Automatic annotation (TrEMBL), chain A:
Residues 1-178 form the FAD-binding PCMH-type domain. SMART domains: CO_deh_flav_C. Pfam families: CO_deh_flav_C (PF03450), FAD_binding_5 (PF00941). Gene3D superfamilies: 3.30.465.10, CO dehydrogenase flavoprotein, C-terminal domain, Uridine Diphospho-n-acetylenolpyruvylglucosamine Reductase, domain 2. It comes from the Bacteria. This is Xanthine dehydrogenase family protein subunit M. SUPFAM superfamilies: CO dehydrogenase flavoprotein C-terminal domain-like, FAD-binding/transporter-associated domain-like. PROSITE patterns: FAD_PCMH. Keywords: FAD, Flavoprotein, Oxidoreductase. PANTHER family: XANTHINE DEHYDROGENASE SUBUNIT C-RELATED (PTHR42659:SF2).
UniProtKB/TrEMBL annotation, chain B:
It comes from Nocardioides cremeus. SUPFAM superfamilies: 2Fe-2S ferredoxin-like, CO dehydrogenase ISP C-domain like. This is (2Fe-2S)-binding protein. Residues 2-78 form the 2Fe-2S ferredoxin-type domain. It comes from the Bacteria. The keyword Hydrolase does not apply. Signal peptide: none annotated. The keyword tRNA processing does not apply. Gene3D superfamilies: 3.10.20.30, [2Fe-2S]-binding domain. PANTHER family: OXIDOREDUCTASE WITH IRON-SULFUR SUBUNIT. It holds the Pfam family Fer2. Coiled coil: none annotated.
Length: 285, 156
């Protein structure tokens, strides 16, 4: 299938893109890497009148160091993020999640900001972004810019804090230098969306976990923080027994979906198992 | 209609296209490059893989207008005259195909994989080809072909 007809705009600056959004409003859809949007358009699940392609805006690409944060441009392809040394050193959890996101071809084309703005609860980037306390920089009309904390960014299924006439321009990842990180994804077959996945970043000193950040993928309508687990891990030894005990609280407060890949109870169970594996791997235990 | 100009398999081309035209449609229907095939049409199977500015992409999941100004290489641009590309040669040697439908995409992704990682382990090959499906399930010889192309000759 091919998409329904649309007009195509390819602005070369954020200002131009925002002006196009202001002009076309509801009728427009923003195209980043297109790896989720194009299938949606081709299946005719959406038929915007105007497609605004951000692919020609160079300023939205790249990774840079800014003091205590690593800044990732919204249009930076996954493959670039996956091999970026700054991200690897200071936000290893993102590296771990992005390196096995979808497949190689999609990682070449799909973008960091596009995937986060799409906000698929089964997407691989929400949980690590949430766990690391990412900040989302959103450009609005009239040259305004606002920064939204990860806790407020994911609103609901495929819904974020980005307004209809706004654009996500960059994601700021607070440095977690020296933290161990692991992304544990459970799939039945290659190239599948995670049935459940767990993102864990752990700071350990002398075999004791001093701090932990745990994010859950596909355990609700948005990515979630497993705060009960984080709390329970603090001050615990990085041992199988202690981590198992803490991880047993992973699904607290979650209302995961039920589908052909597993019902909600199965997902709750998976979350505890994957959390134990992710935390132990992150702690190097 | 939107005017695009790009380089495909070393030749400069320019056309007016509908913005909704997919890159794979453009390659096949406008340029007659039917070596690139459409398999699943849902961006899963990878049969339509081509190189866009040096990296592998699924051409059913890229608009032709997004390729404006870019350099595209298809399976038809891989050989040099009568000389097959080493990866093509390896697929032939190792019988890395059964029905052959996934082969153009498998070869294009294998070339990209070896450019990024010239000495992949077997696991890295299998992960690198994760986005390419062979419905004959002929993966074993495909992996051997990639190993052979990487100079890991005695793959048995």
């Amino acid at each position: 299938m091919i998409p329904a007809p649309f007009d195509y705009l390819a602005p070369t600056s954020v200002e131009e893109a925002l002006a196009a959004l202001a002009e076309h409003g509801d009728d427009a859809k923003v195209l980043a890497g297109g790896q989720s949007l194009l299938p949606v358009l081709r299946m005719r699940l959406n038929a915007p009148e105007v497609v605004i392609d951000l692919g020609r805006i160079e300023s939205l690409r790249g990774v840079r160091d800014e003091g205590d944060v690593v800044v990732v441009g919204a249009m930076t392809p996954h493959s670039v993020v996956a091999s970026d040394p700054l991200v690897a050193e200071h936000a290893g959890l993102v590296s771990r999640a992005v390196e096995h996101l979808a497949d190689a071809q999609i990682r070449h084309r799909g973008t960091f900001g596009g995937a986060l703005a799409h906000a698929d609860p089964a997407g691989d980037l929400g949980a690590p972004a949430l766990a690391l306390g990412a900040q989302f920089v959103i450009a609005g009309q009239g040259g305004s810019t606002r920064t939204v904390e990860a806790d407020d960014f994911f609103v609901d299924l495929f819904e974020t804090a980005i307004g209809e006439d706004e654009l996500l321009t960059e994601v700021r990842l607070p440095k977690h230098t020296g933290w161990g990180a692991h992304y544990e994804k459970f799939v039945r077959v290659a190239h599948q969306w995670p049935i459940v996945a767990v993102a864990a970043a752990v700071k350990a000193e002398g075999g004791t976990i001093t701090e932990a950040r745990v994010g859950l993928t596909n355990m609700g309508s948005t990515p979630l923080r497993a705060r009960a687990v984080e709390e329970a891990l603090r001050g615990q030894p990085a041992t199988e027994e202690a981590v198992r005990e803490a991880a047993s609280r992973a699904a607290e407060g979650c209302t995961p979906p039920s589908d052909l890949n597993g019902d909600a109870d199965y997902r709750r169970h998976l979350a505890t198992v994957l959390t134990r594996r992710a935390v132990l791997a992150a702690a190097g235990a | 209609m939107t005017r695009i100009s790009l380089t495909v398999d070393g030749s400069k081309v320019a056309d007016d296209v509908e913005p909704r035209m997919l890159l794979v449609q453009y390659l096949r229907e406008r340029l007659g490059k039917t070596g690139t095939v459409v398999g699943c049409d849902t961006s899963n199977c990878g049969a339509c893989t081509v190189h866009l500015d040096g990296t592998s992409v699924k051409s059913c999941n890229v608009l032709a207008v997004q390729a404006d100004g870019a350099e595209v290489t298809t399976i038809e641009g891989l050989a040099t005259g009568e000389d097959l590309h080493p990866v093509q040669e390896a697929f032939r040697e190792c019988h890395g195909l059964q029905c052959g439908f996934c082969t153009p995409g498998m070869i294009m992704q294998s070339v990209a994989l070896l450019e990024e990682n010239p000495q992949p382990s077997e696991e890295e090959i299998r992960l690198g080809l994760e986005g390419n499906l062979c419905r004959c399930t002929g993966y074993h010889n495909i992996v051997k072909a990639v190993q052979q192309a990487a100079g890991q000759g005695a793959a048995s």
